[in-house]
């Protein structure tokens, strides 16, 4: 799963040289006294753990009915506890133990009759080995290897984890400000500060006490009440005085109410003043700095000085409240004159995969296609969409072909810039390489998502099709509305 100096340090200092699978099984997530990085890793380890799976080798490490393996959908590898205990007591606890002595392809695994399962247990067991057979899993001499199934190469990295999280997070409930915050016209430092404030994670005294620190706990700005986030930025007498003085210059500052919580105040402010959404952030940032100066430097500043700091900060940011949009990216499909070219994209929703794309021929004909891809991950959808595009291009007699896709990972695989290690995708990767080599000339290039809208829409239509069913039609002829249907498997 990892290698290098940091891997060795973490393995020795925190994991006590336990193998990764034992560290996970025994839930040895002890992070007391660890670094901030390690504490954060342990708290959010579920993001990693949900994607861990065994790449089957000799089958001696995978526990039947308990451990996931590459290609298995969520829950399909689980068996009831009484069946797991029954297998372990009879010496069939590992995958290597259930291979049939004959080793025949049609009878590779011990079935329910061989193990004595009857009734519902027999049905569950035959389903378990049926999935193994369906995925084409066979034992070999290599040891079992733990991979991260959400990564194309099987290794966990910051990039692959981020790509997985941005797909999964929109499915979860988020606060209204979590996406907007990063578009506001303030510095990255202020964005991170405000993120911590709105999550109530900034180190005010109440949060320090919760972490075991001992101290006075009194707000140093007013010296009257206990310090927490709502007090220091809303209810504090000193803070209210700053906002009253701001109203003398900016009349709209009166909308910062002293009887609401910080979150309610800021939401109301953002609705009333979308172009000045950054003013409360600048005020709170200045108050936070003043508070820290008092604590660490024992120096106090007058309200007039603090107001000058706020006005200075406010002058740095125009009253737009939003960053400029990203510069438009080049569209390589505009340089495809006199060439056959196509685009592809894959979609995955709730484990269901679909694909789609376009083909433009050098004689002016344009085709759209959509394809059902069964169940799997987004990487599987992208890879099989590419296969479908190449399959259709050969059917349309293309000898030279330019391919464009918005999945940089897939493009790098095909161009040999990265290695695919996911066993469930290797088969399709090899088939793509085989069909790629039948073209006299082919190029696979990355295309930014904003230039791949049509393929993206078609891939979502593919979610509703049966697995292996590809439909295409010529759209350059206005009266063509009939889709031709073929099987790609």
Topology diagram in text:
Elements: H1 5-13, H2 20-25, H3 36-43, H4 45-49, E1 52-55, H5 81-89, E2 99-104, E3 107-109, H6 112-115, H7 119-134, E4 145-148, H8 158-168, H9 177-180, H10 188-198, H11 205-210, H12 229-235, H13 237-247, H14 262-272, H15 279-297, H16 303-316, E5 341-349, E6 352-360, E7 366-375, H17 378-395, E8 400-405, H18 408-414, H19 423-436, E9 441-446, H20 453-462, E10 469-474, E11 484-487
Parallel strand pairs: 5-8, 8-9
Antiparallel strand pairs: 1-4, 2-3, 5-6, 6-7, 7-10, 10-11
Could you explain the architecture of this structure?
Helices cover 41% and strands 14% of the residues. It has 20 helices and eleven strands. It has helices at residues 5-13, 20-25, 36-43, 45-49, 81-89, 112-115, 119-134, 158-168, 177-180, 188-198, 205-210, 229-235, 237-247, 262-272, 279-297, 303-316, 378-395, 408-414, 423-436, 453-462, and strands at residues 52-55, 99-104, 107-109, 145-148, 341-349, 352-360, 366-375, 400-405, 441-446, 469-474, 484-487. The strands form three sheets. Strands 9-8-5-6-7-10-11 form a seven-stranded mixed beta sheet. Strands 1-4 form a two-stranded antiparallel sheet. The protein has a two-stranded antiparallel sheet with strand order 2-3. Strand 5 (341-349) and strand 6 (352-360) form a beta hairpin. Residues 320-328 have low confidence and may be disordered.
Quick structural summary:
This protein has helices spanning 5-13, 20-25, 36-43, 45-49, 81-89, 112-115, 119-134, 158-168, 177-180, 188-198, 205-210, 229-235, 237-247, 262-272, 279-297, 303-316, 378-395, 408-414, 423-436, 453-462, and strands spanning 52-55, 99-104, 107-109, 145-148, 341-349, 352-360, 366-375, 400-405, 441-446, 469-474, 484-487. The chain has 489 residues and is an alpha+beta fold. A 7-stranded mixed β-sheet has the order 9-8-5-6-7-10-11.
């Amino acid at each position: 799963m990892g290698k290098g100096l940091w891997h060795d340090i973490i393995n020795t200092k925190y994991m006590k040289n336990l193998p990764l699978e034992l560290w996970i099984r025994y839930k040895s997530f002890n992070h007391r006294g660890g670094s901030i990085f390690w504490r954060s890793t342990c708290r959010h380890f579920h993001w990693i753990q949900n994607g861990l799976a065994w790449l089957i080798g000799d089958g001696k490490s995978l526990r039947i009915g308990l451990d996931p393996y590459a290609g298995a959908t969520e829950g399909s590898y689980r068996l009831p506890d009484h069946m797991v205990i029954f297998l372990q007591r009879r010496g069939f606890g590992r995958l290597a133990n259930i291979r049939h002595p004959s080793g025949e392809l049609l009878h590779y695994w011990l079935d329910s009759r061989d193990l004595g399962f009857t009734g519902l247990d027999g049905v569950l067991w035959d389903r378990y080995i049926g999935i193994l057979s369906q995925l084409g899993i066979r034992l070999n001499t290599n040891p079992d290897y733990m991979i991260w199934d959400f990564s194309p190469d099987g290794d966990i990295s910051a990039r692959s984890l981020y790509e997985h999280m941005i797909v999964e997070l929109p499915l979860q409930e988020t606060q209204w400000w979590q996406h907007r915050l990063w578009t506001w016209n303030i510095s990255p430092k202020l964005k991170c500060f405000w993120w911590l404030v709105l999550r109530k994670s900034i180190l005010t005294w109440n949060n320090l006490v919760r972490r075991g620190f001992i101290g006075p706990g009194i707000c140093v700005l007013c010296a009257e009440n206990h310090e927490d986030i709502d007090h220091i930025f809303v209810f504090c007498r000193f803070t209210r005085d700053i906002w009253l003085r701001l109203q003398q210059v900016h009349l709209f500052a009166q909308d910062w109410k002293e009887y609401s919580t910080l979150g309610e105040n800021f939401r109301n402010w953002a609705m009333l003043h979308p172009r000045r959404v950054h003013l409360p952030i600048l005020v709170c940032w200045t108050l936070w700095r003043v508070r820290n100066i008092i604590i660490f430097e024992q120096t106090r500043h007058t309200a007039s000085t603090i107001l000058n700091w706020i006005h200075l900060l406010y002058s740095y940011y125009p009253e737009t409240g939003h960053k400029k949009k990203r510069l438009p990216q080049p569209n390589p499909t505009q340089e495809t004159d006199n060439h056959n070219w196509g685009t592809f994209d894959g979609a995955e929703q709730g484990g269901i995969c679909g694909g789609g794309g376009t083909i433009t021929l050098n004689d002016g004909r344009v085709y759209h296609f959509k394809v059902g891809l069964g169940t799997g991950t987004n990487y599987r959808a992208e890879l099989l969409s590419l296969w479908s595009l190449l399959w259709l291009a050969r059917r349309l007699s293309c000898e030279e072909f330019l391919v464009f896709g918005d999945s940089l990972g897939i493009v790098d695989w095909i161009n040999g810039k990265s290695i695919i290690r996911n066993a469930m995708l290797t088969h399709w990767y090899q088939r793509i390489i085989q069909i790629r080599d039948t073209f006299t000339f082919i190029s696979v290039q990355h295309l930014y998502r904003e230039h791949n809208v049509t393929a993206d829409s078609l891939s979502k239509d593919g979610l509703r099709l049966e697995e292996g069913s590809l439909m295409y039609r010529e759209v350059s002829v206005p009266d063509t509305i009939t889709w031709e249907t073929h099987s790609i498997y």
